[in-house]
Design brief:
Blueprint (H helix, E strand, L loop, with lengths): L15 H5 L13 E5 L1 E2 L2 E2 L1 H17 L3 E7 L2 H13 L4 E6 L8 H15 L3 E5 L2 H14 L3 E5 L1 E4 L5 E7 L4 E5 L7 E5 L16 E4 L32 E5 L9 H11 L2 E4 L1 H5 L20 E5 L5 H7 L4 E6 L12 E4 L2 H22 L1
Parallel strand pairs: 1-4, 1-6, 4-5, 5-12, 6-11, 7-11, 13-14, 13-15, 15-16, 16-17
Antiparallel strand pairs: 2-3, 8-9, 9-10
This protein binds flavin-adenine dinucleotide (FAD).
The site of flavin-adenine dinucleotide (FAD) has 29 residues, from helix 7, helix 8, strand 16 and helix 9.
C-alpha cells in the first residue's frame, strides 16, 4: 500500500476511473485523429457513413484533431468521387485503398486493408456503421488490432481526459452504460443507421486524399466471390430512412388488423412496422421491427397504434420529428414522449384516418 506524502497515513487509491487507468502505453501515444469507415458498395455510400461523419466532426473538434474518411474499393476514380462527397459532410481528408481484391466486400481483404491503414496512420478513434457489413468488419478489425469495440452506441462524447465515452443500452435496454477503451488504441465504436442525425452537406468543401497501396494478390485470398446477386427484396422495408412510418403493437389484437396499419402507411406514402411482439407472433417480418433490437427510425411523422411505448421501443423512435400515438390507455408510457396523443381504439380510428387522408390527398392532387 502506498503512503501519503508526509509518510503518516496510507494514501487512498485514486477514486473512480482514474484509479483503474494505467498510463497509455508509449506506442499508443502517437495515435491521433478521428476516422470514419465509409461504407461504399457497388457505387453507393451507405447514408450511415455521412451520419457518422457528422458525429465524427464533433469528436474531432472536441479533440482539436482532423476527421478522416476511409474508403476501400476496387475502382480508384469511383472512390475519389465518393471522397469528395465525404469532404462535404465534414471530412478533412480521405484515406483511399483501391485494389481489385476490394471490389466486393470480403472480411479478409477489408480487415487487412483497414488494419494496415490503422497501423500506418494511427487514428485514436475509429467509427463504423452498425450495418451487416460494418458489424462484420468492426469485430475482426478490433480483434486483429487487439483493441476495444463498443457496439451499437447511442451517444458519443470526449471526456475531460480526451477519452472516447461511448454510451450504449445495457440490461435489456433498461440502463445506459458508458464504456471507455482506456489503454488501447484506436477506440472503436459502431453506431446504427439513423441513431445520429444526418449533417447538412456543405457545397464546395474540399479536403486531402491520401492513397495507400494494399499488397494483397487475389491468390492469397481464401474467400472467392463467384457472382454478385443483388437482393431481389432489397427495396423491401426501407424503414430506417422513410419519412413517414405507421406502426402497430399488440393493441391491434389480430394479424388481420395489421392490414389497417399497412393501409394508412400506403395512403400516406410511407412504410409500416411494428413492435417486437408482432414479429414474435409472425404478424410482420423481422425487418419491420422498430426499437432497440430492430430498426432505429427518424421519420418526419411516426404514427404508433396500440403500442405501449416500452423503453426498448422508445429508443428506436424518439428521433422522429412528430410522434402521434393512438392508445386506449390514457396512462400508457407512449404518451410521455408522443407529441400528439389520441386516446382511442386504434382498430376503429385507423380506417377512419386512412379514409380521411385518402380524401384529403386526392382533393389536393386534383387541385394541383
Ligand atoms: C432485450 C429486449 C429487447 C427488446 N427490443 C424491442 C424492440 O426492438 N422493439 C420493441 O417494440 N420492443 C422490444 N422489446 C419488448 C418491449 O419491452 C415491449 O414488451 C414491447 O415493445 C411491447 O409491445 P407493444 O407495445 O406492442 O405491446 P404492449 O406492451 O402489450 O402494449 C399494447 C398497448 O396497446 C394498448 N391497446 C390495447 N388495445 C388497444 C386498442 N384497441 N387501441 C389502441 N391501443 C390499444 C394498450 O393500452 C397497451 O398500451 C424488447 C424487450 C427486451 C427485453
Amino acid at each position: 500500500m502506498s503512503q501519503s506524502p508526509d509518510g503518516t497515513a496510507p494514501a487512498k487509491p485514486a477514486a473512480g476511473r482514474a484509479g483503474l487507468r494505467k498510463e497509455l502505453p508509449e506506442h499508443f501515444k502517437a495515435y491521433k485523429h478521428v476516422w470514419v469507415f465509409i461504407e461504399y458498395e457497388h457505387g453507393v455510400v451507405h447514408p450511415v457513413s455521412f451520419e457518422l461523419l457528422g458525429e465524427g466532426r464533433k469528436l474531432a473538434d472536441a479533440l482539436g484533431v482532423e476527421l478522416a474518411g476511409v474508403l476501400l474499393g476496387g475502382e480508384r476514380d469511383a472512390l475519389i468521387a465518393a471522397a469528395r462527397t465525404c469532404f462535404q459532410y465534414g471530412a478533412d481528408l480521405a484515406y483511399l485503398v483501391a485494389n481489385p481484391v476490394l471490389t466486393h466486400y470480403r472480411n479478409e481483404t477489408y480487415t487487412a486493408a483497414m488494419t494496415r491503414l490503422v497501423d500506418t496512420y494511427k487514428p485514436e478513434v475509429l467509427l463504423l456503421g452498425a450495418t451487416t457489413l460494418g458489424r462484420d468488419l468492426a469485430g475482426s478489425v478490433a480483434t486483429t488490432l487487439l483493441t476495444g469495440l463498443t457496439a451499437d452506441c447511442t451517444a458519443l462524447a470526449i471526456d475531460g481526459e480526451r477519452s472516447l465515452a461511448a454510451t450504449r443500452p445495457t440490461f435489456g435496454g433498461s440502463l445506459l452504460c458508458t464504456i471507455h477503451t482506456l489503454n488501447y488504441r484506436p477506440q472503436m465504436a459502431t453506431i446504427r443507421p439513423r441513431v445520429m442525425a444526418m449533417p447538412a452537406p456543405q457545397a464546395g468543401r474540399t479536403g486531402r486524399i491520401v492513397e495507400h497501396a494494399l499488397d494483397m494478390p487475389e491468390e492469397d485470398v481464401v474467400t472467392k466471390v463467384l457472382r454478385f446477386l443483388p437482393d431481389r427484396e432489397s427495396n423491401k422495408a426501407q424503414l430506417a430512412y422513410a419519412d413517414i412510418v405507421v406502426a402497430g403493437g399488440l393493441g391491434l389484437k389480430s394479424e388481420a388488423n395489421v392490414g389497417l396499419v399497412k393501409a394508412l402507411a400506403d395512403a400516406l406514402g410511407g412504410e409500416y412496422g411494428g413492435s417486437r411482439p408482432l414479429v414474435q407472433k409472425g404478424w410482420i417480418g423481422g425487418d419491420r421491427q422498430i426499437g432497440q433490437t430492430g430498426k432505429t427510425i427518424r421519420p418526419k411523422l411516426y404514427i404508433a397504434a396500440g403500442i405501449s411505448g416500452a423503453i426498448q421501443h422508445r429508443v428506436g423512435v424518439e428521433g422522429a420529428d412528430l410522434i402521434v400515438a393512438i392508445n386506449t390507455d390514457a396512462n400508457a408510457p407512449i404518451f410521455d414522449f408522443a407529441h400528439v396523443g389520441i386516446v382511442a381504439d386504434a382498430v376503429e380510428l385507423l380506417p377512419a384516418l386512412t379514409g380521411a387522408f385518402r380524401r384529403h390527398l386526392s382533393i389536393n392532387r386534383i387541385a394541383s
